[in-house]
């Protein structure tokens, strides 16, 4: 890409919208993911009695909570893929078209 194309892209409002939305989504999903993972670790470390509570003869509360952490990570991945397919890819194509047509 030439310098004029680079300046054009960096000054484009669609490019700024693309960056803003990408940052918002990635930061939000990262924070949620970290809260879930570290929350689980803190529960293990500081809520040992709660996590060791038996909910059946051989299953403690920690097992379904751990499975919940995995399910939440799948859901967050699904949310990202859904968002990327609906919005992000559209904005990327719009910016690419502008670059190719200039």
Overview of this structure, please?
This protein has one domain (about 15-95). It is about 85% helix and about 0% strand. The chain contains 4 helices and no strands. It has helices at about 5-10, 15-45, 50, 60-100. Helix 2 (about 15-45) packs antiparallel against helix 4 (about 60-100). The longest helix is centred in the last third of the chain and has 40 residues, at about 60-100. The model has no long low-confidence stretch (mean pLDDT about 90).
Could you give the topology of this structure?
Elements: H1 3-10, H2 13-46, H3 48-51, H4 62-101
Helix pairs in contact: 2-4
Query: What are the segments in which pLDDT stays under 50 over at least 5 consecutive residues?
Result: none
DSSP strand tally: 0
Question: How many discrete structural domains?
Answer: 1
Structural class: mainly alpha
Number of helices: 4
Gap between N and C termini, in Å? 11 Å
Biggest β-sheet description: none
């Amino acid at each position: 890409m030439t310098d004029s194309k680079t300046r054009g892209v960096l000054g484009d409002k669609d490019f700024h919208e693309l960056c803003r939305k990408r940052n918002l989504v990635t930061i939000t999903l990262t924070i949620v993911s970290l809260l879930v993972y570290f929350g689980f670790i803190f529960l293990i470390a500081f809520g040992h009695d709660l996590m060791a509570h038996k909910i059946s003869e051989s299953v403690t509360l920690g097992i379904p909570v751990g499975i919940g952490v995995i399910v939440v990570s799948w859901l967050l991945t699904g949310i990202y893929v859904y968002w990327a397919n609906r919005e992000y890819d559209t904005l990327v194509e719009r910016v690419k078209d502008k670059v190719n047509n200039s």
